[in-house]
């Protein structure tokens, strides 16, 4: 049943995309901002404890509500599909990437840079559009698609919801700035934890859907150099699968950061944005085929 529900949610996402009005994550973001303004206090220990309290207050109630709803007769199936639908973001990923591709094709570098800055936390004036966009597509494929699918298969709609809410809080608070260094610690560590297995399965999927040998080699040799335990495997494998080189000096909020080089090949070009999207889409088909196959095997074993 979970495999069919996952397919239905993916179809909804590809067909309708994210809700344009009354998106639950918009309200969630407002609640997160309100709580952060009132609890982000104190030094290292107190700040981390209050950050953990904030994550608990924001994530636990909606997850428990979702857990109750999915166990209601008839309503449970609908809630499961709708929950996974709004936690998925492949359509949104396309919607953000396509205008960048169009702007580059029209030679509007300034517009392409502005659009790219909207999907990554880098300084607009200095970002390399093609590299930054490809990195964002690969990493968001893991965060906005495969992480939610993994936790849906493991823990149903409540699992997918918990993953997406934690990932959203990490995007809001998981910075090593003075403001969020301690308060955002819990959100960042929890995001690393819930993304640990999905990120590696995503990296494996990218490798199988692209240049497998090169992707696995880049993953093995380069991923550990990245400061994120999950983004490293995903981007190293994705870059190797595409045959491009990602990483390098990157400016965040006025500060230059020496990012490790990942992948093998030349710098990404405009056409590599579309290739990155296709890689994520092929990987999604592979995941769905694997999920359906595992569900079928399970049914056969239960029948025997």
Considering the chains and any ligands shown, give keywords for the structure.
single chain, 304 residues, mainly alpha, two-stranded antiparallel ribbon, 12 helices, 2 strands, 73% helix, globular, cobalamin biosynthesis
Please give the alpha-carbon distance between the first and last residues: 18 Å
Number of helices: 12
Largest β sheet strand count, sense and barrel closure:
2 strands, antiparallel
For the record, the count of structural domains works out to: 1
Look at the structure and give the mean pLDDT: 92
The global form is globular
Into which percentage range does the β-strand content fall?
5-15%
Order of helices and strands: HHHHHHHHHHHEEH
**Overall number of strands:** 2
Q: Uncertain spans, ≥5 residues at pLDDT below 50?
A: none
Q: What structural class do you assign from the helix and strand content?
A: mainly alpha
Sheet with most strands: strand arrangement:
1-2
Determine Rg (CA atoms, Å).
Answer: 19 Å
Estimate the helix proportion, in percent. Answer: over 70%
Protein name: Cobalamin biosynthesis protein CobD
Family: Belongs to the CobD/CbiB family.
Keywords: Cell membrane, Cobalamin biosynthesis, Membrane, Transmembrane, Transmembrane helix
Membrane topology: Multi-pass membrane protein
